[in-house]
Amino acid sequence: MKKFFTKVKDWFVAHKPTKRRIIQLYAALLTNANLKGFATGKIYTGDTKKMCVPGLNCYSCPGAVGACPLGALQDSLAQSGRSAPSYILGILLLFGLLLGRLICGFLCPFGLIQELLYKIRTPKLRKNRFTRVLSYFKYVLLAIVIAIPIIYAGIPSFCKYVCPAGTFGGAVSLLSNPNNTDFFGMLGYLFTWKFCVLVVVVVASIFIYRFFCRFICPLGAIYSLFCKISLLGVKLDKDKCIDCGLCVQGCKMDIKHVGDHECIQCGECISVCPVQAISWKGSQIFLRNTTPVGQPAVAEGEKIQLLEIAKANASGSVTAAETVVKEEAAGGATTAMTEVEEETAVAQVDEKPKGKKLQAVKTAFKKPRFVVEFVAWVLATLLLIGAIIGYAVTKDKKIMVYAVGDKCPEFILSTYKSDNDVEMVSTYGISKVTVLNYWYTDCDPCKAELPEFEAVYEEYDGAIDMFVIHSYAAIPQGGVQNFLDTAKDKNGRAWNSYKLVFAQDTEELNTYGMLGGKYAFPMTVILNSSGRITFVRQGSCPEDILRSEIIKALG
Question: For 321-333, what is each residue's pLDDT tens digit?
Answer without folding.
Answer: 344 334 444 444 4
